[in-house]
């Protein structure tokens, strides 16, 4: 019974394109290994539900990792060249880091613009409030207001 | 109502409408559907074995001359099985269909074609998936429509059934025939 | 017993009755408040009770269906199985769309019930309006459930013999706690929202309102933060590759309300203390809840791709979309009509806590906007041009991290500031030592590491800055009594604040150290192989067959040594869940305060060797520890007795507006 289960499991594992995301690539240096890791983390698996090719079990991810390894180590290509190669075939979709071009102006510069705009508003608000502080001067409560305070304090004492 | 408030009201309604429009678009579209990066680009160069003829190779040249479908399929793909009958029908109507046997066992593939009829004018064997990769294939079935100069005009992911042919691929195919 | 067969129908009926109560709760008190009719206003509380009771019944019925393996109920058949362990059967109730929505509605009824009980000191019209708004929100969710997502639908007459099983990824303790915590947060923000709308409707947007609203907001915020942290921790140990945050749309959907909620908390503080920023506070409350709803929409409509998304259905998507749009449009329009246009004459100078809290709000709002833009951008671009683009961690990290750095810098300055005006000399006296100590400590720690890293240095500095500024302020406040005696006299609100800030600093350290100093190797290990990674040696001893309740697996054994001493025995597994034939990786983790050891099995190779992933992740637990501290800080602050003290509201109102010179504690 045990053997049957094991065989069943292994055969199913073979059918499933679940070649695990753990490859056994050899790297000369730690820098290379890290470069591979960060590059594969930046590339998206075209058919998964939002996963990068480093972590995905899909067969296409395996192919893409193999290609990345080959281009990086065997052919000595740069990151841009590798990404470009994949984008040519699969489109911009496979890049998790969106390109900085006309289409992505709002994306990349929007938040900065918003921050700058907001800080500008901050300056205006603070300036206005500073004026208000100066305007009130030392006598912050008018005579009428001071009287009212006294009244309320009396009332509170009475209520206790 | 002051002018400031009026502008604010207008801006709110505009913003809500814009978001609604975008959301409705999103609801009607599958976010996982990937348009091909190769539309209006030439079919990639390749040289691979003919699945059904030992020793013979096929290259891009063999696909040129008239508008054709290039269908990426495999025996491990259940949808391909479903689609196969529709492909047979199209082939009978005179549509040229080339096959790319993607990451498959050639023996199994040959048996499949013998059993289920062969709609393909030529069948390219791509066991390692290299041609598939150059085409931006990430699963099967996927079908490309080429014009007579070998430029990719359309890509469809999923099975090519009656409806898909009628609404999506067929009309473009007819157009290309006229050119 | 024949009647037991009809328990799902009872659950369905209870749902409909809850809706009826929600309708009563939504309209009668509101009209009552408008017409100043005491009887109609008082209907709010019993209606809230009724809604809660029936949702409890409904939820219990669904749980019953799961516990008794009632596969005539479609939802149970799709998400459970007779072999599923009983504790997962309970959590499977909220494992998919319909059930989790029922949980949401139940928690909403729970919060409404809590508001109804714990708000004795609220004026009648305010409570009536708050309950009313919450009733309207309940109506939305209950209608959504009944019309499009009924969990009690039956499969008859041919019911499946057994269920399709709960998704193996969800068969975990994480599912038991993560969604309930998260929903406590999402739903809790509806209370803050209801308070804001009620204040707008009543035309009374004042410091008292802020004081009532604050503890509810703090609790909701704390739960949401804890829920997010739990999700991150769960993903870390469950998914098998050692990551803990992916900027996935669903993750972002939970982070955005939390960020806005943080801004809201701080804004409420200003409104309570100084009567300022009222409009900001109301808008933030509206934004926090709207983002919760937006999150619901994104997760359940199928509009964005995500590993977390529920199975989608356009009808459902349209329903939530309409609900979301109505809520946002109505609340914003109400705001434009009713927001006070009379600006308070209260002023503050540049160097004041008001300014710093304004900066805090700005940074958090910009961060939220950035996450929102990034999450929606693929959809925006697709709808405008048809182009498909992906926006992922490289984008979000690049923009989010600098913003948090600015926030932490401002934080240190902010806690030592006084309200209204802070003399520069005071500031220098307070922060001078903090600056020196932080700089020195961070430089020292950085030099101790093997390799210099600028980001690590920066985060060391910022975290030290935050922590020491807090300590400096506490020291200053307890000078007269001595530190430990004085601390006991400080308010819970104040201590909660510092605990929250401490959590942020701890979390930041965890993030930067685990991101930059992790070691990792993916490689083939034969039986008996020993690999060195960091200070540790990992020895692989092969994998054995193992059978679980509803899965079979290959269970690996890896011994970890420090030199010659064994310090851990790990069992990573490669499981196959039988019903769904779904393979899964269970990582073997040795948790530690200063590092985690993380191993996972890949694929079996020849002769019993396996592809193995080994990771040493320094300080990764600090990420969730920090989040836990922050959450506890929020809960501690909410327990401050001043929120429950009965103070005559007239006097309180008058004193607040007349009092310009506020105290220095928060």
Concise synopsis of the structure shown:
The complex is a heterotrimer of chains A (160), B (179) and C (666). Chain A is an all-alpha fold and 160 residues long.
Structure description:
The complex is a heterotrimer of chains A (about 160), B (about 180) and C (about 675). Chain A has about 160 residues and is an all-alpha fold. Chain A has helices spanning about 1-15, 30-40, 60-75, 80-90, 105-135, 145-160. By secondary structure, chain B is an alpha/beta fold. Chain B has helices at about 5-30, 80-90, 105-115, 130-135, 160-179; strands at about 45-50, 55-60, 70-75, 95-100, 120-125, 140-145, 150-155. Chain B has a five-stranded mixed beta sheet with strand order 5-4-3-6-7. A two-stranded antiparallel sheet of chain B has the order 1-2. In chain B, a hairpin with a 7-residue loop joins strand 1 and strand 2 (about 55-60). Chain C is α+β, with helices and mostly antiparallel strands and about 675 residues long. In chain C, strands 2, 3, 4, 5, 6 and 7 form a six-stranded antiparallel beta sheet that branches. A four-stranded antiparallel beta sheet of chain C has the order 1-10-9-8, with helices on one face. In chain C, helix 8 packs across helix 11 (about 280-300) and helix 16 packs antiparallel against helix 18. The longest helix of chain C has about 35 residues, at about 355-385. At the A-C interface, helix 1, helix 2, helix 5 and helix 6 of A face helix 13, helix 14, strand 1, strand 9 and strand 10 of C.
Class derived from helix and strand content of chain C: alpha+beta
Which sequence of SSEs, written as H and E, runs from N to C of chain B? HEEEHEHEHEEH
The overall strand count of chain B is 7
Question: Spans of chain C with pLDDT under 50 lasting ≥5 residues?
Answer: 660-666
What form of chain B results from the Cα inertia axes? elongated
Q: What helical percentage do the residues of chain C reach? A: 55-70%
Q: Looking across the biggest beta sheet of chain B, what order are the strands in? A: 5-4-3-6-7
User: What class do helices, strands and sheet pairing of chain B give?
Assistant: alpha/beta
> What's the end-to-end separation of chain C, in Å?
60 Å
Largest sheet of chain C: 6 strands, antiparallel
Per DSSP, what share of the residues of chain C sits in E-state strands of 2 or more residues? 5-15%
The total of beta strands of chain C comes to 10
**Cα distance spanning the termini of chain B:** 62 Å
Number of helices of chain C: 20
Quaternary organization: heterotrimer
Cα Rg of chain C:
27 Å
Relative strand content of chain B: 15-25%
- Gyration radius over CA of chain B: 21 Å
């Amino acid at each position: 019974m045990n053997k049957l289960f094991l065989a069943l499991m292994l055969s199913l594992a073979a059918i499933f394109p679940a070649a695990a995301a753990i490859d056994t690539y050899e790297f000369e240096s730690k820098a290379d290994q890290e470069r591979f890791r960060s590059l594969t983390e930046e590339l998206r698996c075209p058919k998964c539900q939002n996963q990068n090719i480093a972590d995905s079990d899909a067969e296409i991810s395996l192919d893409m990792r193999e290609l990345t390894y080959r281009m990086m180590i065997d052919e000595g290509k740069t990151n841009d060249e590798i990404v470009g190669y994949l984008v040519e075939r699969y489109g911009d979709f496979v890049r998790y880091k969106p390109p900085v071009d006309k289409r992505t102006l709002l994306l990349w510069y929007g938040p900065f613009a918003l921050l700058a705009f907001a800080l500008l508003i901050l300056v205006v608000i603070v300036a206005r409030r500073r004026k208000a502080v100066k305007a009130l001067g030392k006598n912050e409560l008018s005579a009428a207001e001071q009287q009212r305070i006294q009244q309320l304090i009396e009332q509170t004492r009475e209520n206790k | 109502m002051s002018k400031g408030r009026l502008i604010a009201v207008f801006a709110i309604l505009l913003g809500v409408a814009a978001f609604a429009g975008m959301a409705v678009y999103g609801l009607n579209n599958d976010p996982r559907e990937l348009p091909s990066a190769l539309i209006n680009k030439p079919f990639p160069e390749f040289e691979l074995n003919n699945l059904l003829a030992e020793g013979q190779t096929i290259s891009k040249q063999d696909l040129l001359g008239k508008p054709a479908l290039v269908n990426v399929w495999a025996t491990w793909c259940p949808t391909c099985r479903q689609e196969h009958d529709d492909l047979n029908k199209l082939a009978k109507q005179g549509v040229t269909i080339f096959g790319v046997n993607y990451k498959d066992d050639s023996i199994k593939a040959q048996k499949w074609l013998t059993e289920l009829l062969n709609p393909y004018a030529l069948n390219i064997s791509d066991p390692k998936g290299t041609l598939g990769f150059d085409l931006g294939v990430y699963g099967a079935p996927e079908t490309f429509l080429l014009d007579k100069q070998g430029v990719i005009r359309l890509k469809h992911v999923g099975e090519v059934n009656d409806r898909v042919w009628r609404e999506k691929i067929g009309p473009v195919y007819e157009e290309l025939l006229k050119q | 017993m024949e009647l037991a067969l009809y328990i799902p129908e009872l659950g369905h009926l209870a749902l409909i009755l809850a809706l009826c109560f929600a309708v009563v709760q939504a309209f009668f008190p509101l009209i009552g408040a408008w017409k100043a009719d005491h009887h109609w206003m008082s209907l709010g509380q019993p209606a809230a009770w009724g809604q809660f009771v029936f949702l409890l019944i409904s939820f219990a019925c669904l749980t019953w269906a799961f516990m008794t393996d009632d596969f005539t109920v479609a939802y149970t058949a799709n998400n459970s199985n007779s072999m599923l362990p009983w504790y997962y059967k309970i959590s499977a109730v909220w494992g998919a769309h319909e059930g989790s929505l029922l949980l949401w509605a139940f928690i909403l009824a729970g919060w409404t019930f809590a508001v109804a009980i714990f708000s004795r000191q609220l004026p009648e019209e305010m409570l009536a309006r708050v309950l009313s708004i919450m009733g309207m929100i309940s109506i939305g969710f209950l209608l959504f459930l009944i019309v499009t997502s009924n969990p009690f639908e039956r499969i008859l007459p041919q019911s499946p013999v057994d269920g399709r099983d709960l998704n193996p990824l969800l068969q975990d303790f994480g599912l038991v706690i993560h969604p309930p915590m998260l929903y406590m947060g999402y739903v809790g923000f509806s209370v803050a929202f209801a308070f804001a709308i009620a204040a707008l409707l009543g035309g009374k947007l004042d410091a008292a309102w802020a004081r009532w609203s604050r503890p509810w907001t703090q609790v909701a915020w704390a739960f949401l933060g804890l829920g997010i942290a739990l999700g991150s921790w769960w993903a870390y140990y469950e998914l098998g590759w050692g990551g803990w945050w992916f900027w996935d749309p669903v993750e972002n959907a939970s982070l955005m309300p939390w960020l806005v909620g943080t801004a809201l908390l701080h804004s409420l503080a200003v409104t309570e203390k100084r009567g300022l920023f009222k409009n900001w506070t109301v808008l933030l409350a509206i934004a926090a809840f709207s983002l919760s709803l937006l999150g619901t929409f994104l997760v359940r409509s199928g509009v964005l791709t995500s590993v977390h998304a529920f199975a989608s259905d356009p009808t459902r998507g349209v329903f939530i979309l309409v609900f979301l749009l109505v809520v946002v449009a109505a609340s914003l329009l109400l705001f434009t009509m009713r927001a006070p246009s009379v600006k308070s004459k209260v002023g503050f100078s540049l160097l004041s806590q008001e300014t710093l809290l304004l900066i805090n709000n700005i940074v958090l709002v910009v961060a939220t906007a950035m996450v929102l833009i990034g999450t929606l951008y693929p959809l925006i671009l697709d709808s405008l041009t048809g182009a498909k683009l992906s926006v992922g961690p490289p984008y979000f990290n690049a923009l989010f991290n600098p913003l948090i750095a600015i926030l932490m810098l401002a934080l240190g300055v902010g806690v030592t500031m006084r309200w209204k005006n802070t003399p520069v000399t005071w500031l220098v006296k307070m922060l001078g030592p903090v600056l020196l100590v932080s700089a020195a400590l961070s430089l020292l720690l950085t030099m101790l590491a093997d390799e210099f890293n600028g980001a690590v240095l920066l985060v060391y500095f910022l975290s030290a800055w935050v922590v020491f500024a807090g300590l400096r302020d506490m020291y200053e406040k307890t000078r007269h009594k001595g530190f430990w005696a004085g601390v006991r006299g400080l308010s819970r609100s104040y201590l909660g604040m510092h605990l929250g800030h401490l959590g942020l600093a701890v979390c930041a350290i965890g993030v930067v150290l685990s991101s930059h100093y992790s070691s990792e190797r993916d490689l083939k290990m034969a039986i008996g192989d020993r690999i060195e990674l960091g200070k540790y040696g990992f020895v692989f001893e092969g994998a054995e067959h193992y059978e679980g309740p509803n899965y079979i697996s290959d269970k690996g054994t890896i011994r970890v040594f420090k030199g010659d001493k064994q310090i851990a025995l790990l069992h990573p597994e490669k499981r196959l869940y039988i019903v769904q034939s779904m393979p899964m990786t269970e990582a073997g983790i040795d948790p530690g305060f200063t590092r985690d050891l993380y191993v996972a099995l890949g694929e079996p190779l020849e002769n019993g060797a396996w592809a193995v992933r080994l990771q040493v992740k320094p300080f990764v637990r600090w990420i969730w520890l920090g989040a836990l501290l922050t959450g506890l800080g929020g809960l501690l602050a909410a327990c401050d007795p001043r929120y429950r003290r009965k103070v005559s509201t007239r006097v309180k109102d008058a004193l607040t507006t007349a009092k310009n010179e506020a105290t220095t504690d928060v």
